[in-house]
Amino acid sequence: MAETSKDPGTGVESVGTEPRATGYSWYVLGVLVVVYILNFIDRQIVSILAVDIKADLGLTDADMGFLGGAAFAVFYALFGIPLGRLADNWNRVKLLSIGLALWSTMTALSGFARNQVTLTFARMGVGVGEATASPTAYSLISDYFPKRQKATALAIYSSGLYLGGGVSLFIGASIVEAWNRTWPNGGPMGLVGWHGAFLAVGIPGLLVALWVATLREPARGAMDGVASQSTPHPFREFLRDLSTIVPPFTLFGAAQRGAGLRGGPAADIEAGPAMQENAP
Questions:
Q1: DSSP 238-250
Q2: In terms of C-beta distances under 8 Å and separation of at least 24 residues, what long-range contacts does 203-207 make, across chains too?
Q3: Residues 136, 84: Cα–Cα separation, whole Å
Q4: Which of 194, 148, 189 is nearest to 171 (CA)?
Q5: d(C-alpha 83, C-alpha 106), whole Å
Q6: Over pLDDT 70: what percentage of the chain?
Q7: Per-residue pLDDT tens over the stretch 127-146
Q8: Using one digit for the tens of pLDDT, what is the confidence trace for 34-69?
Q9: Among the four 83, 107, 139, 202, which has the fewest Cβ within 10 Å?
Q10: Domains present along the chain, CATH in parentheses
Q11: Which tens digits make up the pLDDT trace of 103-131?
């Protein structure tokens, strides 16, 4: 009979020399699927509520295209790389719970928007928060599941995308309809149906963020038998990445690199001819 051992820190079981996922691994995967469902609901909700938002705020099709596209996507893409690097070097459970709390808060704050500007800033915050989700989730799955089960785990995780899309279509319209039926002339604080929809999908994410924070952080590389070390200064690396990718942080990065060049090899090159002229 094969000998079975279990690592109490990671919950990873080994049968002989081959590791396998435990019940806790599947539990973590289930939590990550819930997070991905919320991720896509909060991402898609603007498109679902577009008609009501456009009519209430007096926006054009171009305005709605910006809210549903660039306002979210640009910040999601720009912050994705630095936050991915941070996920490589810092606690992934903490990063995911913070990111989920951020995008859920920004989604809920969208429910108080009175004009395009405030709604745009809220959507930018959603983009930054959601940029933490995939890097942390993929990394956690890699350390909770062995190679022979990773494809299955990733397929299950990816199902959250389509579940979230389907759920968002259903609940978005239902909440708007129920809210407007209950308060036809506007509800508390003058909020209308689309405001209520943002609040209804954003607030539960804060509770899920607390749930995510209870997960155990697995040892990096333990499932593959090759433990990896994180950088001792993860946030220093994160800020360095921001300074090379994300405006206006790139201005600070350029200033620092310029100062380094003035005191580095470039300065020696400039000083070289003068030193040669003064040489005996």
A1: HHHHHHHHSTTHH
A2: 203/104, 203/108, 204/38, 204/104, 205/38, 205/42, 205/100, 205/101, 205/103, 205/104, 205/107, 205/108, 206/101, 206/104, 206/105, 206/108
A3: 7
A4: 194
A5: 18
A6: 79
A7: 999 999 999 999 999 999 99
A8: 999 999 999 999 988 999 999 999 999 899 989 888
A9: 139
A10: 21-212 (1.20.1250.20), 234-278 (no CATH)
A11: 999 999 999 999 999 999 999 999 999 99
Q: Helix or strand or coil: residue 220?
A: coil
CA dihedral 260, 263, 264, 266 (to 10 degrees): 100
d(CA 261, CA 263): 5
CA distance 255 to 240: 12
- Residue 240: is its pLDDT beyond 90? no
Determine contact, residues 70/190, Cβ cutoff 8 Å: no
Unique residue bearing structure tokens 């899309």: 165
- pTM for this entry: 0.80
